[in-house]
Amino acid sequence: MSSSLSPPPLEPFSVHIWFGKAGLKELPELILGLYLEKPFFEIKMERTPKGKPYLPNSSIQFNLSHSGDFMAMALSLREIGIDIEIERDHRKLEAILKRFFPIEALQHFKTLSSPLQKKLFFRNLWTRHEAIVKAKGTTVFDSMETLNSYYSPTENTILRSENYYLKSIQVPEGYVGAIASPLQEIQITYFSSEMYFP
Q1: Do 99 and 39 touch, CB atoms closer than 8 A?
Q2: What integer pLDDT is reported at residue 4 of this predicted model?
Q3: pLDDT for 31-71, tens place per residue?
Q4: Is the dihedral of CA 148, 124, 11, 62 positive or negative?
Q5: Does 72 score more than 60 pLDDT?
Q6: For the chain, percent helix, then strand, then coil, each to nearest 5?
Q7: Is 98 helix (H, G, I), strand (E, B) or coil?
Q8: E strand or H helix at 159, and its extent?
Q9: Edge-to-edge strands of the sheet including 61-67?
């Protein structure tokens, strides 16, 4: 499988975000092949000891997230982390916040009046944390105590946590998502894999 289309090249301050159906196993290799101008079967990803995928001998950094029917992939010339989450019924939100997150997050959670606000707050918090974890190449539990930037009054506010800036991203309906990057000023471009691999 190949595509006659080509995405624009990655620039120093650009992030490319791809969405596609999670069922296509070779989709990450197909997307990377567009940038490297190689067939997907020549793309050989490797993983760090903690499971972060990378391309040996390439300046392209990337990260993957799967949730529900979708896969999201972020590409950059700097470290990058991405997480998307489909809406789920989390019944123990307060207990999870109390166990894993800063006290400020729990305090803000308790000020929210509706169940919908509480679920959205938790999902945004969780995706931002996951994005940082994935940018660093660690695990969720390695970084639980260091998440300080937990709340944004608007969806598009850029937050800083540790050495990363967090930003909410455009996602399919019913999802939330975030990326983590060391770059504060970034230009995000969105792509649909179905346009390139119908």
Answers
A1: no
A2: 66
A3: 999 999 999 999 999 999 888 899 999 999 999 999 999 99
A4: positive
A5: yes
A6: 30, 25, 45
A7: helix
A8: strand 159-161
A9: 61-67, 70-76, 14-21, 187-192
Retrieve residue 155's tokens: 């969806």
Query: Which three-class secondary structure state does DSSP give residue 15?
Result: strand
Spell out the domains of the chain, with CATH numbers in brackets.
Answer: 14-196 (3.90.470.20)
> Hey, what are 75's tokens?
């590409």
**How distant, in Å, are the alpha carbons of 106, 132, 184 from that of 111?**
9, 26, 29
| Interacting residues of 40 by C-beta distance below 8 A, sequence separation 6+ | 1, 2, 26, 29, 30, 32, 33
> What average pLDDT does range 71-89 have in this prediction?
92
How far apart (Å, rounded) are the C-alpha atoms in residues 28 and 26?
A: 6
| Highest mean pLDDT (candidates 34-43, 89-98, 166-175) | 34-43
Residue 144 banded pLDDT, cuts 50, 70, 90: low
pTM summary value: 0.85
